[in-house]
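Good morning C.,

I know you're traveling, so I'll keep this short. The sequence:
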Amino acid sequence: QVQLVESGGGLVQPGGSLRLSCTASGSAFSGYTMGWYRQAPGKQREFIATITSIGSTNYAVSVKGRFTISRDNAKNTLYLQMNSLKIEDTAVYYCTQDWDSWGQGTQVTVSS
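The tokens, ready to paste straight into the viewer:
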């Protein structure tokens, strides 16, 4: 059973940047599709981005051009670089391995 731990969340002003990390332990990392989702208060969990084992990426329209998903298989770590952050990006961000395992989430708050 894989354990996923997110980090890097925090408070940032609109227009700012954050980089989230998700470290996996307990299972093979490189062979799985990894993804980021988020959930804002009162809303359903929302797809953000995925990256396959060979590095193919897919993004939600709402973040395309602003967010970048990447992975370092040597470090068993998934990243989400978030630029030009907007107030509406405020949410708890979760990483997932193959939509089977999920982390506990990290809070991102965009506020002036």
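Safe travels,
E.
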